[in-house]
């Protein structure tokens, strides 16, 4: 509960910062013009306020809307921080060094606040295991998500990254003056790279992506625990294998899951667990059976 309250406080600070930025951006403060505040930001701020109110009303328990908002802000903050540095150079904007330093410093502080808040919110989530007790012996099973869910993840994450990275990729493309066809190829290659960075950072820190928050799923290992650092790094690099993005069509687990020993399963709030929890370990994954069984 304490972690949830700290997360709510951090998000509140971030919202106050966002509202202040929007206000000064509308009245034409020069340094803020680098961020290019637009009226669409008010919609995201309203969503953030609504999600925060819901979190408070639920007694710091229901956090899905808030996690979606914070996750979006996390990834966007990384893109904006890079963009704030590159855009003045690419477009020849007259920005003073001290103003640029101030802007970069505030963005880095914002990133730290957002990543901390998101990590704290994710601590309330755990893999959804079907727990069964036979006397003094306990066992648990989990079911990897199906093909349709994996396809939904792919579509949502690609659209999400495309939207957030639009400005960033546009700035990078201006660094090289080439014909239209090569510009398209450059943007596509950068998009693939940006997707890889997105999966690496978000799953490394939070074990989820934007799509996984929507579908209430999480990345775990064979023991039914949240995937480790090297497993996340491995599955992220595996995504660069040609045609890996559609490998889940031939099996519910894509190559990045199989090669890294990870699974994507449903998750739940820790307070939703009705049975007593217990430590588990993996005893084997029968390929002919749809579920994976864990026994302590």
Shape: globular
Structural class per helix/strand content?
alpha+beta
The total domain count is 2
Largest sheet: 4 strands, antiparallel
Gyration radius over CA: 21 Å
Please report which band the strand proportion falls in: under 5%, 5-15%, 15-25%, 25-35%, 35-45% or over 45%: 5-15%
Q: Portion of residues in helices? A: 55-70%
Overall average residue pLDDT: 76
Please tally the β strands and state the result.
7
- Low-confidence segments, ≥5 residues, pLDDT <50? 26-37, 275-296
Strand order of the largest sheet: 2-3-7-6
The span between the termini is: 28 Å
With helices defined by DSSP (H or I, 4 residues minimum), what is the helix count?
9
Can you offer a commentary on this structure?
With 296 residues, the protein is α+β, with helices and mostly antiparallel strands. The chain has two domains: 2-123, no CATH class; 130-295, no CATH class. It is 58% helix and 11% strand. It is built from nine helices and seven strands. It has helices at residues 2-26, 40-57, 64-91, 97-122, 147-173, 180-206, 210-214, 229-238, 255-260; strands at residues 125-127, 130-134, 137-142, 217-221, 262-269, 281-282, 292-295. It has a four-stranded antiparallel beta sheet with strand order 2-3-7-6, with no helix packed on it. Helix 1 (2-26) packs antiparallel against helix 4 and helix 2 (40-57) packs antiparallel against helix 3 (64-91). The longest helix has 28 residues, at 64-91. The protein is globular and about 70 Å long. 29% of the residues are buried. Mean pLDDT is 76; it is low at 26-37 and 275-296.
């Amino acid at each position: 509960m304490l972690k949830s309250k700290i997360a709510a406080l951090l998000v509140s600070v971030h919202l106050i910062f966002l509202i202040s930025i929007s206000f000064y951006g509308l009245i034409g403060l020069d340094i803020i013009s680098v961020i290019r505040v637009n009226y669409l930001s008010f919609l995201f701020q309203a969503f953030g306020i609504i999600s925060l109110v819901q979190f408070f009303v639920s007694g710091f328990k229901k956090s899905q809307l808030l996690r979606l908002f914070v996750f979006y802000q996390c990834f966007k903050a990384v893109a904006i921080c890079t963009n704030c540095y590159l855009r003045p150079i690419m477009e020849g904007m007259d920005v003073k060094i001290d103003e640029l330093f101030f802007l970069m410093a505030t963005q880095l502080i914002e990133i730290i606040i957002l990543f901390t808040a998101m990590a704290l919110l994710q601590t309330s989530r755990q893999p959804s295991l079907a727990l069964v007790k036979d006397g003094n012996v306990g066992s648990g099973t989990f079911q990897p998500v199906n093909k349709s869910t994996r396809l939904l993840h792919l579509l949502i994450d690609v659209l999400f990254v495309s939207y957030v990275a639009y400005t960033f990729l546009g700035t990078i493309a201006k660094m090289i003056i080439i014909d239209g066809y090569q510009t398209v190829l450059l943007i596509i290659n950068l998009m693939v790279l940006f997707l890889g960075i997105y999966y690496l950072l978000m799953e490394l820190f939070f074990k989820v992506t934007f799509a996984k928050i929507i579908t209430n799923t999480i990345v775990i290992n064979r023991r039914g625990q949240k995937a480790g650092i090297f497993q996340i790094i491995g599955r992220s690099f595996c995504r660069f294998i040609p045609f890996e993005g559609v490998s889940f069509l031939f099996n519910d687990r894509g190559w990045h899951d199989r090669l890294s020993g990870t699974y994507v399963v449903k998750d739940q709030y820790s307070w939703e667990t009705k049975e007593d929890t217990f430590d588990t370990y993996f005893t084997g994954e029968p390929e002919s059976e749809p579920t994976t069984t864990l026994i302590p």
